[in-house]
Design a protein that fits this description.
There is one protein chain. The mean pLDDT is 96. The protein has a 6-stranded mixed beta sheet with strand order 1-2-3-5-7-10, sandwiched between helices. The protein has one domain: Alpha-Beta Complex (2-enoyl-CoA Hydratase, Chain A, domain 1). 43% of the residues are buried. By secondary structure, the protein is an alpha/beta fold. The chain has 9 helices and 10 strands. Strand 2, helix 1 and strand 3 form a beta-alpha-beta unit.
């Protein structure tokens, strides 16, 4: 079973991340998400990206990081950066249905989407890189400046503050919070409304707003 599953409901593609664990972004997960996005771009008018119950995305795969294989680690992090930039500039509307915890790269993925819906419960969202001794690469810095509310930027990026889903709305990680049993219905409603927009105009304005930043980030990545 693929770690990212694709299904289509009318004009809406639903991509569900589910590796049975923390939905870590490793080479297999990143490849599966890209494959799903290929299908969505060809066949859908909007995309919902969701997770497994309790976890949206736990960030990069620590098992890969702990191998000590520098080449494999770099390949994974570069692929993750390119995936984030792909979603940020994706020509179809993207809605993220945040099913639970979303930390590190998971938090940055929330910053890439056009609309983000969380759920009530004991779930956290945030960027813990500084807390674990890591710095932020160019794609992460750009997304932080672009999407996190200025009043929360230092707390989120520098202090590794973790937010409840309710508090994550004010910080800029999420746009609204619903009850867990209403999440997918609300995501479908929002995706349907976004899909009704003029597709060419949506893609053009999105490119005008974000394209230059995306190009700068991609140009900074090693070949």
């Amino acid at each position: 079973m693929a770690p990212a599953n694709y299904e289509q409901q009318g004009d809406i593609a639903v991509v569900t991340l589910d590796d049975g664990k923390a939905n870590a972004m490793n080479p297999d997960m990143i490849a599966a998400v890209n494959t799903a996005l290929d299908r969505a771009q060809a066949n859908a008018r909007a995309v919902i990206i969701s997770g497994r119950p309790g976890v949206f995305c736990g960030g990069f795969d620590l098992k890969v990081i702990r191998t000590g294989d520098a080449a494999t680690q770099q390949a994974m992090t570069l692929a993750g950066a390119r995936l984030a930039m792909r979603i940020y500039g994706f020509p179809r509307p993207t809605v993220m249905a945040t099913t639970g915890h979303s930390v590190a790269l998971g938090g940055f993925l929330l910053l890439t989407a056009d609309y983000r819906i969380g759920i009530n419960g004991a779930f956290t969202v945030g960027l813990n890189e500084v807390a674990i001794g890591m710095t932020l690469p160019p794609f992460a810095l750009m997304l932080s400046r672009a999407r996190i509310d200025t009043r929360h930027l230092s707390n989120a990026a520098l202090s590794s503050t973790m937010y409840s889903h309710a508090d994550a709305v004010g910080a800029g990680f999420l746009d609204e919070v619903v009850e867990p049993d209403a999440l997918m219905a609300r995501a479908m409603d929002k995706a349907t409304s976004l899909a009704a927009l003029d597709a060419k105009a949506f893609a053009r304005v999105k490119q005008d707003l974000r394209g230059a930043d995306i190009e700068r980030v991609l140009a900074s990545l090693p070949a």
